[in-house]
Amino acid sequence: MVKVKIPKPYQLWLYSILAVSWCSGTTFFILHTWFMVEGKYGLVKHSWQFPALQIHGAAAFLMMVSFGFLLGSHVPRSWKVSPKRKLGIALVTIITFQMITAYSLYYIAQDEPRVIVAYAHLAVGFIFPIILILHIIAKKKAQKKHRQKHIK
Question: How many CB atoms lie within 10 A of CB 17?
Answer without folding.
Answer: 20
